[in-house]
Amino acid sequence: MKPLTRICIDLETLGTRTDAPVISIGAVLHNSGDPFRVGAFYASIDIQSACCHGRPDGDTIAWWLKQPDAARMALFDNPQPASTVIESFSNCLDGWLYQCEQEHREVAILANGPAFDLSILARQFRRILEKPLPWKYWQERDYRTERDALVRVLARMGGYTELPPRTGTNHNALDDAVWQVQVLETLQARIDAGIERMGAIVARSAAGEVTA
């Protein structure tokens, strides 16, 4: 089995439909089992430019106005034209995927609702770059589905199923992507530790060291 690398992607937008303007992109490249992230991408998009490539939604704009200052101010941290950000992100993804190919790693593209983030991103790639996303559809994974599957395994093992405390700023695209990877890695580490403990018990039992 090839070692797994996750590319976790999060978008912040001004709408909830596929044609929503994208106002920031965050992504993390992470090798499963490694405590350190291998790569990260973050960029905010000038709102006027974003709206040239999407249709804003009034309810979403009102929602943003109610969010914490830290989340809103990140959107104005060196904003760039949409075309610049999408091209930069495309180049970043190409580099990450090439690196994974050279290292013979399996790649999973993770989003907290791929039907939302990745569909919107696909539209931006088609509109601005006139090309598709640089991965196969079957590589896409849903963060919540993966998280819940790990929680169920832990529950069956009698393990600790609480999620780790939230880190970073909610609705900061990079912080959201980092936290999602942290959650999956924490849950997987608990499962691995539980399997190791059970293996040790079985080994001791086979050696006659465990008594009823």
TrEMBL record:
Segments forming domain 3'-5' exoribonuclease Rv2179c-like: 6-187
Keywords of this entry: Exonuclease, Hydrolase, Nuclease
UniProt key word Nuclease: yes
SUPFAM superfamilies: Ribonuclease H-like
Domain of life, per lineage: Bacteria
A molecular function (GO) term: exonuclease activity
Protein name: Exonuclease, RNase T and DNA polymerase III
